Amino acid sequence: MALGTLDRSLPPFFNQGPSVLSKLVLCGALSVFLMVADARFHMTQPVRAALVSVLEPVQWLALKPADAVRYSRDYVSGLNQAQSNSAEAGKKLALQSLRAGQVEALAQENSRLRKLLGLREQLATSVLATSIMAAEVLYDVADPYTRKVILGKGQLQGVALGSPVLDEFGVLGQVTRVHPLVSEVTLLIDGELSIPVLNVRTGARSVAYGDPGTGSSGMELRFMGSNADVQPGDLLTTSGVDGVYPPGLPVAKINHIERRSQSAFLKIDCQPLALVSGTQHVIVVKPVADRPPRPVPNAPPVRSKKESAP
Amino acid sequence: MIMRSGQQLLLPASPLFIWSSLFAALLLNMLPLGRVLWLPDFLALVLLFWSVHQPLRVGVGVAFMFGLFMDVNQTSLLGLHALAYTVLSYFASQVQRHLLWYKVPLQALQVLPLLAAAHAVQMLVRVVGSGIFPGWLLLLAPLLEAALWPVVSVLLLAPQRRAPDQDENRPL
């Protein structure tokens, strides 16, 4: 018999290490501890960032086939597709340049009117222009329970935690984790994200929640009384009251309204305007953080002279 | 060593091959295929395979580590996949002694509950944690993984099935 058939390492009669059960208990307890630390105390960010950095080359390798497929598809689709894309982009640009020309005049008029009325200066569009950054979506997270994408820019490129992320159609989501080289964006349709919105037609403010359930277009407008003025097709934009999203960015369109007799609220189904799947290039905006300071919770109420005088 | 009659005597497994197969499975899991509910978890399958065939080389500790990698990649709760893979690897070590006495299709039938348990651990934590249930298509994933067991058995045992002394008649 050839020597190669034998496993020639010493049989580990005495050196078996800890038993499998003890390993199970140890690793199980460690993973439960990690889950609690992650969910309740948010302490695992350094561990996560380290593991992400370790996995970076593997991730890079795993993205190569997808890139190759995309490249070859673009290559095969050829000249016709490229020409029609270019024509469409040109048309869109023409339309937008018309509007952009009007914006300057309108902004000036708006600021004059605001001064006239003594209102606080709204966030200028120039602020928006200086603090944006383009980024590429690396991949959609495959996890079926959440709706997230990974961006190819991170802390080193200046992505801040909580930054709004937009695509060419509207708000896409928010940066919820920042690693050194990549960052994680939770989409608007994730069940854990909510966004303050303004109904453009009526001016009513409310909050839209992500709704990943089946039979839903992706978002839900909650706590609107059954007599509220909403119509299918209403445009919702960011209201800007949260200090995160700049005001006036398109978010969603109301898709379907259901009146339920057993509830005091309407069930309003909204369709996000941004491409929630298959988007490639996005814009990361710095959070606005331009809001009045929070009131101190236990401060004594300030009384006017009229009230204090008996 | 006592073996099933008619079973081929295998060469010792090369550690390099074990690790590169685990790495390849991790890579397969990381491919950006989008959000497909029934996508089989290749890494769980390969971890289970080596936990059964090489319990001294791949065990609970390795499964835990690869689970952490998957958690980071899927941005899930840190420790979720680690817990599932740990449980899977432990069960594998429990059934390891009798599983190899069966033929491969019967083995596939017997690993099905283990793979289903690994998915169930993840689903339980998810449903308790976030209250979202993504859909019944999820049940297809362990079935597909069990169906892949014979394929994995052939692929991963192939290097050990080479001839012990190669000559020009038997080059492999």
Explain what this protein looks like in three dimensions.
The complex is a heterodimer of chains A (310) and B (172). By secondary structure, chain A is α+β, with helices and mostly antiparallel strands. Among the domains of chain A are: 23-91, no CATH class; 194-278, Rod shape-determining protein MreC, domain 2 (Thrombin, subunit H, Beta Barrel). Chain A is built from four helices and twelve strands; from the N terminus they run αααββββββββββββα. Chain A has a six-stranded antiparallel beta barrel with strand order 1-2-5-4-3-12. In chain A, strands 6-7-8-11-10-9 form a six-stranded antiparallel beta barrel. The longest helix of chain A has 73 residues, at 45-117. The radius of gyration of chain A is 27 Å and the shape is globular. Chain B is elongated and about 60 Å long. Chain B has a domain at 38-157. Chain B is 63% helix and 0% strand. In chain B, 40% of the residues are buried. By secondary structure, chain B is an all-alpha fold. The interface between A and B is large, with 56 and 51 residues.
List the helices and strands and how they pair.
The complex is a heterodimer of chains A (310) and B (172).
Chain A: H1 20-41, H2 45-117, H3 125-130, E1 132-140, E2 148-151, E3 164-166, E4 171-178, E5 183-187, E6 194-199, E7 205-210, E8 219-221, E9 235-238, E10 250-258, E11 267-272, E12 281-285, H4 305-308
Antiparallel strand pairs in A: 1-2, 1-12, 2-5, 3-4, 3-12, 4-5, 6-7, 6-9, 7-8, 8-11, 9-10, 10-11
Chain B: H1 15-30, H2 42-53, H3 60-74, H4 80-99, H5 104-130, H6 140-157
Helix pairs in contact in B: 1-2, 2-3, 2-4, 2-6, 3-4, 4-5, 5-6
